[in-house]
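User: structure tokens for this one?
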Amino acid sequence: MAIKQQKPAEAHDTITKNPGAIYLDVRTEGEFAQGHPTGALNVPVVFIKGPGNMQLNDDFETVVEKVIPKNTKLIVGCLSGGRSQRACEILEGAGYADLTNVVGGFGGQRDQSGAIIGKGWRDEGLPVSSDVGDAGYPALRAKAGL
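Assistant:
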């Protein structure tokens, strides 16, 4: 099944119309703490080890499965849409069926040169929070028993 693709404003509309939907932010803990869609949960799909050096988070699938039921409508976002697409593919393989990738993510969609070609969540003026609390990765790992 093809993973749905939505721009940030469409994703916000989907979350607003579906109270049980969850925005899963798959950026790093540091990126999440600097600002994220209000109400989002943070489970990084990769850890950035240096410029161009990303390491898959071995616990990604486990944490998501233990804290989010598989029948949940998931809106998955990152900075621009690449990591979140990969996260959607992993989650689809784990049995999640209602997945939407946020094209443009939090910081905007970029072309090959890095120039922004589509606004992200933040620049669309959608609700943003920097409160981490129970939505942060350490709290979700603990909830998952890791």
